[in-house]
Amino acid sequence: MARVLILGGTAEARELAGRLAETGSFDTITSLAGRTRSALELPGTVRSGGFGGPGPMADYLREERIDAVIDATHPFAEMISAHAAEACAAAGTPRIALVRAQWLFPKDGNWQEATSLVAAADLLPGLASRVFLTVGRQGLDCFSGLEDIWFLVRLIEEMETPLPLANYQVLFRRPPYSLDEERAIMKDRAIDCLVAKNSGGPATEAKITAALEADIPIVLVQRPDPPPGERVERIDDCMAWLKGEL
Predict the structure, then answer these.
(1) Whole-angstrom Cα distance, residue 234 to residue 110?
(2) What is the largest CA-CA distance in the chain?
(3) Bridging pattern class, strands 26-32 and 111-114
(4) Tens of pLDDT, residues 43-82
(5) Cα separation of 143 and 193, whole Å?
(6) How far is CA 57 from the centre of its chain?
(7) Where is average pLDDT lowest: 15-24, 37-46, 159-168?
(8) What predicted TM-score, i.e. pTM, was given to this entire model?
């Protein structure tokens, strides 16, 4: 059986692992960063934690005799994607990135792009007073100096320390989120701005739709540039690539 390493942590990675398990032709290992304590169960083997850089990752690929690597990490998981590209090149292991499509916005929509979380925070003074902040737990310190703004922060699970924000409330919830739920959140909490990463995908698209409907400003953080290499957006295309490689 071909050994496939999936760099996971996304809904696409879970679906891909299930599809590969159904074929009975692949020995699948899904690698998780380990940042989420209550990770969902996955078919195949699961490893947790980083590799320690591209060099140790290349050693892992050789030692475990990995036949192919599928980078199905979050579009903003910049470091692991870069390390994977370098490690696969060093080990001679075929690699492909499974990257979800970005959200498409109407040209007349009330939204603007920011090149980083710091740039997104710089846009908020004078624009909003009650912000729905949906950028994950990393990088929240970029918003720490905005003491006149109240934040509703959505996280998958509780953090062990208080958030680095002056005024906030935390909402713990795992995706997907329904459109009705997102409409209610923005209405009941008088949200006047949404800050999000352009992560794409249907699991979190409802918040974008709800904000566009309410005509509140959307500050969208641009994706980092991906490392060179082949990329697909559909799991079927990823499966076809695997068949061609292996």
Answers:
(1) 29
(2) 58
(3) unpaired
(4) 889 999 899 999 999 999 999 999 999 999 999 999 999 9
(5) 14
(6) 21
(7) 37-46
(8) 0.89
